[in-house]
Amino acid sequence: MNEIIAIIIAAVLSWINFVLIDTWMGLPEEPGVKGAEVIGRAVKKRGGDLAGGFFQGNIVCSPDASAGTLLASAACYTIGTPEGGLIAAVIVYFGNRLCADPGYAGTTGALTITAIIFAASYIGIGPADFIVGMVLAIVTIQGLHHPLASKLLGRIAKKMGRHTKLT
Amino acid sequence: MIIHANVLLTISSYILAVASAMILGLVLRLPILPEKPMRYSWTVSIIFPTSVLAVGFTAVLFKLGYNGLLVAVLVGVFTAIFAKYFLERVLPRPQMEESS
After folding, report:
1. Helix/strand/coil (H, E, C) string of A4-31?
2. Which of A37, A86, A94 sits opposite B55 (nearest CB)?
3. Domain that holds residue A122
4. What is the ipTM of this complex?
5. pLDDT in tens, B8-35
6. A102 preceded by a cis bond (ω within 30 of 0)
7. Is residue A140 in a domain?
């Protein structure tokens, strides 16, 4: 498969994987640590959505499904599929516990992306494409425009019943 | 579709590691699932994280060159004991809520 197309497909799959799992696991509902709350309120002050801001803060402050997706992709590339992804899930879990996070989002994200990488390898998309794709996916959330991204995340959170009750 | 014998052995090993971790977890009276809402629960249970750790530790040993069903069973046993007695000591839950 053409490398550019493979990276775009991998980016879309990675984006859907980590945004849906992180939202499902309640990242927009409340900040896990003080740093996430500061980021969420700063994003809101700049015209963004508070739940989306908490989501952005939480993925900065502890390894959630975004980190799980990236680490599992890198581990599948270096160690092999699926062993790399399974090892990454354990490492992400330990990282979560160190960051005052119970670890559901990160571990689930690492395991699901391992399954996706395994399936995608049959259509010619490899772990390396997922590493680049995940970096692009996270740039759309954290690197381009925080208020706009937070509004999108807030809307997804509302649809999934995970919008914050805090004000 | 051809499935090689070593692939079947690997899959069986992972299943065996999880099964032995679950059985010993039950014997050691680990809860099967965390209490609800699960996404905020810090309870160490059989499904999470014991099963995930069992699969991950098995993958580590396979990559280090230790293969076989016996290795998988031993990893499962080790994981259940680790989850029951050592996990909370090595990686304790936070003492207090940082945010309010």
Report:
1. HHHHHHHHHHHHHHHHHHHHHCCCCCCC
2. A86
3. 3-159
4. 0.88
5. 888 999 999 999 999 999 999 999 998 8
6. no
7. yes
